[in-house]
Design brief:
single chain; alpha+beta; Immunoglobulin-like; Glutaredoxin; 6-stranded mixed sheet; 4-stranded mixed sheet; 9 helices; about 40% helix; elongated
């Protein structure tokens, strides 16, 4: 598993509390006499905001409240049609459906909504092109053809990502740029280049502050950037501390496979390893086999392992733990990259570990194999 997380940007949250309105009308021609649902996405998930019935011709009209009078993101859903809009007070937005096409709709009367459609098309059409190349790849056995498809796939992938970045930079002062920061191609976990992506988040935050200084989406973006900075500060602190002197550690308390909460601080007084792993890692069995050698050799002398899984499926995790007969403390909250333990320790890939001395100080990071065995033996002798 690579790059578990880079920036956990929260979804747009909308709770209307002002009288400002935007008018939205249009037609979903393929959906006469059908309910049009208006939704927002908040920290608690998808929120229903309003609904209206199309007439026999598929036409509809409604007025939407705005969050504190600020431009607001809404999604219209009618049958299979999904239309994201960013609307401002007083706008008269018209939506038209184009069934069967990837872009699927037309929009007018809202500059931000037009920008949302632009980035949606970039990512949607791009994903389709990549999917076509995957299909071709799976249908051929010719080595030369496979190499050619791989080359074309890589070329196409980076072309799409460049378009996405160019859109964000060009429209950095728009709320559509915040929307674009959250768009991903299938399988992507980061925007473009891992931890270096933060430069684009900062650019958008600085630019949106000039155009939408009171936007709740700007507030959320700033909060996410602040959390990212805290995570990076911790990583930097750990790295610098390990070069000079031991560093104290943040607490982790997670449930084991029986539901009992296991505390990391309870191990203070022992030499112990905090190890992050995933059952999805193809090398997990080998990784755990190496740890078993160190554990079996030094556990009787006061060495323990506290192993945190970054997985999301309890049945799969429990099955692997039992099959591999892991003898140490193994815990999981099934939050994956969103786990507080992952965030606290700035974990960006697995396996990753932190070695603690008997006083509870981090004395080594990402130490494996013979180096781990030698360091544990050294600490136990002290």
């Amino acid at each position: 598993m690579k790059k578990i997380f880079i920036l956990a940007l929260a979804a747009f949250g909308v709770v209307a509390c002002a009288s400002d309105k935007a008018n939205i009308s249009g037609d979903f021609a393929a959906n006469p006499n059908t309910t049009v649902y208006v939704e927002s996405v908040g920290e608690g998930g998808i929120n229903h905001v309003d609904s209206v019935q199309t007439n026999s011709a598929g036409r509809f009209s409604l007025r939407l409240p705005l969050l504190d009078g600020q431009a607001t993101l809404y999604t219209l859903r009618c049958g299979e049609q999904v239309v994201p809009l960013i609307v401002s007070a007083g706008e008269k937005v018209k939506v038209g459906s184009v069934p069967g096409l990837v872009d699927g709709y037309t929009v007018s009367g809202s500059e931000e909504s037009l920008l949302v459609k632009e980035i949606k098309n970039i990512m949607g059409f791009g994903a389709l092109r990549l999917d076509s190349l995957r299909t071709l790849y799976n249908q051929t056995s010719s080595k030369s053809v496979l190499q050619h498809i791989n080359k074309e796939f890589s070329k196409e992938y980076y072309a799409i990502k460049r378009q996405q970045i160019e859109f964000i930079v060009k429209n950095a002062g728009s709320l559509a740029a915040i929307y674009a920061l959250n768009q991903r191609l299938p399988g992507d976990e980061s925007l473009f280049n891992g931890h270096n992506d933060i430069v684009y988040y900062r650019l958008v935050a600085d630019s949106v502050e000039k155009t939408y200084p009171k936007s709740p989406y700007l507030t959320q973006l700033k909060a996410d950037i602040a959390r990212y900075d805290q995570q990076m500060a911790l990583i930097d602190k750990l790295d610098k501390a390990l070069e000079q002197e031991p560093a104290a550690f943040p607490e982790v308390a997670l449930p084991d496979m029986y539901g009992k909460t296991q505390s990391l601080t309870a191990l203070q007084g022992m030499v112990f390893l905090l190890d992050f792993w995933s059952v999805a890692d193809q090398n997990a069995a080998f990784h755990n086999a190496e740890l078993k050698k160190v554990y079996e050799k030094h556990n009787h002398a006061g060495f323990e392992i506290y192993q945190v899984s970054v997985d999301t499926s309890k049945p799969v995790w429990v099955e692997v733990v039992q099959r591999q007969r892991l003898p140490w403390i193994t815990v999981c909250d099934f939050q994956g990259a969103a786990s507080n333990a992952v965030k606290l320790y700035g974990v960006r890939s697995v396996p990753q570990n932190f070695l603690f001395d008997a006083e509870g100080n981090i004395v080594a990071r990402n130490i494996f194999g013979d180096k781990l065995a030698a360091k544990v033996a050294e600490l136990i002798k002290k």
